């Protein structure tokens, strides 16, 4: 299970960090492949696991334009805004299924504290991302300064919750390493 959280951690780092030198040197599609691998390693086969893995693979294919085209270039094309909206929606749905999988793993292990932490972070993550996603389309019709302020606040909140999520995955990897070491001693 520790290896699975490690794959999730590295996969989401690939999604969060975009560095372009001709192409994205930390491509999102590799991140999604790692996420799919991580999901397979932390959970047994089940409906939620299959959905989370399938969405990660779908997002790996769907994110290929990120590898070649920077955000500003994609925005130039008319399909760019629809692409970005669809991509963001699929990301939120995929993370929802990931939280369902992690929650079911901790519930089956009777790890109540980890289950509660996962539930809280999942609610905050999904709430902020959904709020950001749906209000960004509405805020475009507001006045300039209000629009800039709101976009700044939502961008900051989204960045903060993404960093919290990555830290959470790293801590879960460390906790599962400790619990495996303790289990091997007993």
Please outline what is shown here.
With 186 residues, the protein is mainly alpha-helical.
How does this model look, in words?
The protein has 8 helices and 2 strands; from the N terminus they run H-E-E-H-H-H-H-H-H-H. A hairpin with a 1-residue loop joins strand 1 and strand 2. The protein has helices at 2-16, 28-42, 47-62, 64-68, 71-76, 78-108, 112-139, 144-185; strands spanning 20-21, 23-24. It starts with a helix and ends with a helix. The model is unreliable at 180-186 (pLDDT under 50). It has a two-stranded antiparallel sheet. The longest helix has 42 residues, at 144-185. With 186 residues, the chain is mostly helical. It is globular.
How many strands appear in the DSSP assignment?
A: 2
**β-sheet strand percentage:** under 5%
- Helix/strand-derived category reads mainly alpha
Shape label:
globular
Q: What order do the helices and strands follow?
A: HEEHHHHHHH
With helices defined by DSSP (H or I, 4 residues minimum), what is the helix count?
8
Helical proportion, percent range: over 70%
What is the overall pLDDT average?
A: 83
Topology overview:
Blueprint: H1 2-16, E1 20-21, E2 23-24, H2 28-42, H3 47-62, H4 64-68, H5 71-76, H6 78-108, H7 112-139, H8 144-185
Antiparallel strand pairs: 1-2
Helix pairs in contact: 1-2, 1-8, 2-3, 3-6, 6-7, 7-8
